[in-house]
Amino acid sequence: MARPLKIGIVGAGSIGIRGALDHLVLPDVQERVVMTAVCDPAPGRAKAAAAKYHIPQAFEDLDDMLAKGDIEAVTLGTPIGIHFEQGLKCIRAGKHVHFNKTMTTTTADADTLIAEAKARNVKLVACPGEMLRPHNRCIRDLIRDGVLGRLAWAVIGCAFGTYHEKEGCRQGNDALSNINPAWYWQRAAGGGPLYDMVVYGLHALTGILGPAKRVTAFSGVAIREREFRGRKFVSDCDDNTVMILDFGNTVFAFVHGTFAGTITRFANPNFYGSKGAVVGLDMNGKPIPYPGKEEADKAKQGYQVLLPHVRNTPHREMEEAHVFEDIMQLVDLVRDGTPTASTPEHARHVIEIIEAAYRAAQTGQTQTLGTTFEQV
Ligand SMILES: NC(=O)c1ccc[n+]([C@@H]2O[C@H](COP(=O)([O-])OP(=O)(O)OC[C@H]3O[C@@H](n4cnc5c(N)ncnc54)[C@H](O)[C@@H]3O)[C@@H](O)[C@H]2O)c1
């Protein structure tokens, strides 16, 4: 493809702005990708985004954008609960799709998207591309090489806290800065810390160890009311979940997604074996010498600067560059057929873990997992 890929931005909210619009408008990517349409139903938001980022077409409705938009691909920056319906529409309209995490909330929906895309030769890329990160690939290789001896167990997890209600980009008074995060607290919209935050650590954990085989969990709703800028919202999604994963060969992992408290770095699992431990980015008390470590240590944004489309570019100092990176993974896949680690199959496996953990908590029964993925 000689000319740039034409992409439509669906959802001009927090991540649509910080992960897509702010990055894709910069000169360094214009030869490869160009924003040709933006879509958001919030009054005035799509038009405001189009004006600010010089995008030719603005829509309030996805069907309209798919019918009239001059686009070949889309990035979905919408609430998780509508990713499936929107992704399916885009695929059926022949558009390549980048999904923000999580791609869907159920395995069956992920299966449908993958099958429909394959049938139409449409490309899918799903966040989060944790295995694009050199430190995760290095840890995977160290564990494979037996540096930790016989692996025993791992742990990863994080807490919701009040992150979304306090995001800076939601505190303004115009269409692009007064963005209500209430869907994060609604189960039907795909809310809760597992789909939103623990998904990063689960991608790292499974990317390093390979697919899990079984899951069991306890889960429930602890905080039933949330507040955003003085307004109260009912919260009905599970916000306190602990699960145990079985990776086979007597290797287990403990995973937590809760409203408060954490014992690991955000997306960095700890691994424990007979000859030592990986704790965050240290192994046996010493920093892991992953490629690019010195550069990452000096950077304001840490190891984010090592992502392939971020390194040595203006994107390295910007927020949410990992989302931009995954969009560029789609651009490279469509334009050049370059394989990516941010596959929909990896996303589907993590989605199955989350869905099965909720089912295990409801039924009291350990769930056997059926999906796998290739570790790219
Ligand atoms: N906020 C973050 O820090 C963050 C970080 C990484 C990834 N993500 C992911 O990005 C996605 C969006 O999250 P967010 O925080 O930006 O949410 P948000 O609520 O800030 O923005 C969502 C946007 O989607 C729009 N929208 C709602 N329904 C729509 C529809 N039918 N068609 C088109 N647009 C519609 C809303 O009007 C809003 O502008 C989610 O998948 C989330 O997991 C968020």
Characteristic terms for this protein:
9-stranded mixed β-sheet; 2 domains; 376 residues; 11 helices; 6-stranded parallel β-sheet; Rossmann fold; single chain; binds nicotinamide-adenine-dinucleotide; Dihydrodipicolinate Reductase, domain 2; alpha/beta
Describe this structure in words.
There is one protein chain. Strand 9 (225-228) and strand 10 form a beta hairpin. The longest helix is centred in the last third of the chain and has 20 residues, at 344-363. The protein is built from 11 helices and 17 strands. Helix 6 packs across helix 8 (193-209). It has helices spanning 14-24, 45-53, 62-68, 83-92, 107-120, 134-144, 163-166, 193-209, 293-298, 321-336, 344-363, and strands at 5-10, 33-39, 57-59, 73-76, 96-99, 124-126, 151-159, 214-220, 225-228, 231-234, 240-246, 252-258, 270-273, 276-279, 282-283, 286-287, 367-368. It is globular, with a radius of gyration of 20 Å. It folds into 2 domains: 5-126, NAD(P)-binding Rossmann-like Domain (Rossmann fold, 3-Layer(aba) Sandwich); 131-308 and 340-368, Dihydrodipicolinate Reductase, domain 2 (2-Layer Sandwich). The protein is of the alpha/beta class. Helix content is 33%, strand content 21%. Strands 16-15-14-13-7-12-11-8-17 form a 9-stranded mixed sheet. It has a 6-stranded parallel sheet with strand order 3-2-1-4-5-6, with helices on both faces.
